[in-house]
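seq as requested:
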Amino acid sequence: QVQLVESGGGMVQAGASLRLSCTVSGRTFSLYAMGWFRQAPGKEREFVASIDRFGTTADYADAVKGRFTISRDNAKSTMYLRMNTLKPEDTAVYYCAARPSPTMTSTGGPMVDEYPYWGQGTQVTVSS
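struct tokens:
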């Protein structure tokens, strides 16, 4: 069984930065493509970013492209999301997710249903 634990959320003002972390245990981290998703109140869970097994390829939602950076450290079994120039519309619960990947360069992709493993979420609140 794979366990995912997010950390690093908080309350910040617009324009600030945060770094989220997702630590994975239970299986070999490098076997999984990873993703970040978020869910605002009253909205569906949406894709933020995804990364391949070794951190060489990443995809981003248009809303965060140029402001957020996804990365991973396989030696620490941890994935990160660096969030710069935060906006009030970035306010949401942020979730990390993992999916087994047979290829080394395919990211996890944007589809919620394709990730079988999820963390509990961490709240990010951005005030104007």
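The radius of gyration is 13 Å.
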